[in-house]
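Justification of computing resources. Each target in the renewal requires a structure prediction run like the one illustrated here; the chain below, 385 residues long, is used simply to show the kind of job we budget for.
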Amino acid sequence: MAERKGLKNRGYGEEDAEDRRIAVEEFTGVRFDHIQRCGFDYPAASKNIENMIGVTQIPLGFAGPIRINGDHARGEFLVPLATTEGALVASVSRGMSVISKSGGASVRVFGDAMTRAPVFRVRDLAHCAQVMDWVDSNEAALKKTVESTTSHGKLVRIEKFPDGRSLFLRLSFSTGDAMGMNMATIASEAICREIEKETGAVMVSVSGNMCSDKKPAAINLIEGRGKTAVAEARIPKETVEKSLHATSAAISETNMRKNLVGSALSGTLGSNAHAANMAAALYIATGQDPAQIVGCSMAMTSCEDLDGDLYISVRVPAIEVGTVGGGTRLPFQREALEMIGCLGEGKARKLAEIVAATILAGELSTLAAQAAGQLGSAHASLGRR
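Resulting structure tokens:
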């Protein structure tokens, strides 16, 4: 009955979705009054999901405006945030207001490369060394192999990690304005086939987990993955005390004892208050892969008391976002990207700078609330209504 009702139907029209939905309702005994209310034509999601039965909607708000002084994002922005956590948007907005009053957030992208790390089986250490030598001698040819698979991606670096009869190659690609994971995977497979043919090494997996994709990893924390960005702001003493109800010394101490010492004692990768919170809300709103917020979760937040002023910065090591392809094709997400001028080609680094500035604002507001002893009251008033 399940097959007859459409559970295995891979069509993407509204009737296909309805058949599947009816079958799921019969199987579970649950009536989907809300899930069926889709605000766009079902075929629009044909490249984003399988077995579609409807949609799940998440409340969308905005934070800001925030003034950003970046290489790619310049001016004032209202930032779309999709979340079910009360108090988050209000907190980020407070941080943005304080940053804007203080002249804005300066942001720079310092690295931009998507990685894939295939693992090969080799015969022994001598064979491993031979394969590595071949890769070194044929890097130019491997770059051409990559270019045969994509008009946008380029191979920029190969790192080699031998381990007994395993050889890992961490391949770094420039991927234009796409997040680039699929692009990197296809290109990596082409490289691997060439290496297999010429050296006798055997590709065991195109992803050997040294990429490292969708997992917290020290290699990404150190070397970066996707876009590595740093955002900073200097908040005058008067603004800290009047708008944040704290002092620069108290906020800096909170950051040191909480984010630095506490994170070190717990073995956390990264040292921040809740960077993943802002990244998740912005990623979901703009059609990014939500699993990639793990890269932002490894952010490092730094604070200093500069003669009463507060200096705050965040280093976000792995901002894996795109402004073309993937979820950016969907109509709601396209509008959210348009809201910040980040839809289409030439906008991915701009989006990364906005992500970093948004994380900076959320970190500032939360650290200030904790330094002032106001975090619980804020959640009580905004998150438990």
